[in-house]
Amino acid sequence: MTLQPTPIWRTTPTLEQLNRAHPDTLVELLGIEFTAIGPDSIEGCMPVDARTRQPFGILHGGASVALAETLGSVGASLTIDLTQSLVVGQEINANHLRSVREGQVFGLARPLHLGGRSQVWSIEIRDEQQRLVCVSRLTLAVIDRKRPA
Hints:
Blueprint: H1 15-20, H2 26-30, E1 33-37, E2 42-48, H3 61-77, E3 85-96, E4 103-114, E5 118-126, E6 132-144
Antiparallel strand pairs: 1-2, 2-4, 3-6, 4-5, 5-6
């Protein structure tokens, strides 16, 4: 018997809603697209093109980190009550394991810890052949929306 993961989402927007929610941001600039929301994961893809390559013609590590942080941050925001709290990145690390010159990369984000004050997410980025390109871990703070600036 295979156990299904318990859904973790407080809200579950459609993919269309997620993909329309980030106009005029880095998400739109880099061509990041959300592709799936599972019971305990969120997925997206990003093109490897002139926007995301570094001068040597391969996927820029910073673009991979931007994809990882986007997936983890959006996932984290879907697990909290956004009328009361926000999530903000505190730390991200990334290990770049394989270069990619063209096509797309695909990210899968899952939480490792969903706490009241912090969250930790693990993000794997793979190429079109499903080879691991980058692994990342993102730590986010859950802060009170009404806290004075």
